[in-house]
Amino acid sequence: MVIHPLAEALGAQVDDVDLSRLTPQDVEEMYRAFLQHKVLFFRDQTLSPEQHLALGRCFGELEPAHPFFPRLVESDQVVVIETSRGHPPGESFWHTDMTWQEIPPKCSILHAQYVPEKGGDTLWCNMAAVFSSLPQSDKARLRTMSALHGLHAFEGSRYDEQDDFGQSRIAQKSQAYPPIVRPMVTRHPETDEEILFINEQFTRSVIGESDKESRALLDRLFAIARQVQFQVRFQWQAGSVAIWDNRVTQHFAVTDYADQPRKLHRVTVKG
After folding, report:
1. 148-161 pLDDT, tens per residue?
2. pLDDT at residue 56 in the model
3. Residue 168: which CATH number?
4. Taken in order 102, 133, 32, 79, is the CA torsion positive or negative?
5. 227 secondary structure, DSSP code
6. Number of folded domains in the chain?
7. Domain containing 13: what range?
8. Secondary structure of the chain: what % helix, strand, coil (to 5)?
9. Residues near 151 by beta carbon (within 8 Å), at least 6 away in sequence
10. 39 near 243, Cβ under 8 Å?
11. Distance between CA atoms of 197 and 250, rounded to whole angstroms?
12. Which residue ranges of the chain lie beneath pLDDT 50?
């Protein structure tokens, strides 16, 4: 196993390893790299759904079937992220996966089945580095603050549909996932890093602030997270795999490929 760091803030490419045939030593080395680099990339990997799930279990217990994303019929814990002719991707937002549920995931593993020749990159951002960059006064204030996270961003998206009465099915499902209040600063349970735990897609507002103050604060912090020095960018190829620490990163899918066919499988590990 050979590990090549890709950017100063986060990200490494891992070569000379077959993710379908990992030894205990491989898993230990890969996990250390996962904590250090926060997102790992692999090329030319062939994984069946069962092997993909087995890889996920190297990182912990798997999340159950996603409540509304498309899934494989034979393996409902494998989410299908697909674009096809006439069905382009929807609007993309920076996000940390599933911060609208009580315990967000630990990590996710994305495996590219096929991708366009050009476009469709994904960017990841190190939110510990973002927090570390802030003035001490901001850090102290943010440590005392909380924010509301919710499912609102999916209503009306390509994952939504209307029932027979014209009501959003995601709005109905969201009743099982009411908005949740989270500290704006969390601490990584394994590395002890402090993390700015907000994201553009699911963070709705700052508790105790007026709408105007909340929006201004979130927009200022989101703008910092969009700075390139905190990011790594990955160009997908068929067979590529990305494994990221959802506790400390957020990511953004670049939707610059129109409706060119693109299909990836995702397995997610519980927090």
Report:
1. 999 865 555 555 56
2. 98
3. 3.60.130.10
4. positive
5. S
6. 1
7. 2-269
8. 25, 30, 45
9. 100, 170, 173, 174, 177, 179, 202
10. yes
11. 9
12. none
